[in-house]
Design brief:
The protein is built from six helices and no strands. The chain is mainly alpha-helical and 156 residues long.
């Protein structure tokens, strides 16, 4: 039980600490590099195209949004501030990683909990199956098995 609690605590800690690395803001007034813009754009989905990250979307609208990301970074916005800006403009659907609040916590907690529960259930059932006596073991005194063996001996 202690192992389960430690494993669950480790999973929660990893989920809480997981996130995309911060993008170093460019110098005030400087133009951010394409790598800096793409590091932010890869975590935003195109509001027009379905499930296409901004960094790989080839539409003119996405090129404009990447330009807008570059402008925001040049103004000194942090990566999180850019995400907040786009979420405010286009809704939470543009975020590749939903914020960990409200029912969105289920996205982070439910999959590890299901996997852990399935592993525990499988382990418990494996122990039961190994300990259960098998009806097909030789030497069983089942009447059906005895009659079958007699008929087989009679046919020889």
């Amino acid at each position: 039980m202690k192992r389960l609690a430690l494993t669950l605590a480790a999973c929660l800690l990893l989920a809480a600490c997981a996130g995309s690395p911060a993008v170093a803001p460019s110098a005030q007034g400087g133009t951010p590099s394409a790598d800096q813009v793409n590091a932010v754009a890869k975590n935003l989905y195109c509001p027009v195209c379905a499930n296409v990250p901004l960094d790989v979307c080839g539409t003119a609208a996405c090129a404009q949004w990447r330009g807008q990301i570059a402008d925001l970074l040049a103004e000194g916005y942090s990566q999180q501030q850019v995400y907040d800006y786009f979420a405010a403009q286009y809704g939470q659907g543009v975020l590749a990683v939903p914020p960990a609040r409200g029912l969105n916590w289920l996205v982070y907690l439910l999959p590890p909990a299901v996997i852990l529960g399935a592993a525990l259930l499988l382990g418990r059932n494996l122990r039961r199956w190994q300990a259960a006596p098998s009806a097909a073991k030789p030497g069983n005194d089942d009447e059906y098995t005895r009659k079958l063996e007699e008929e087989l001996k009679a046919r020889r």
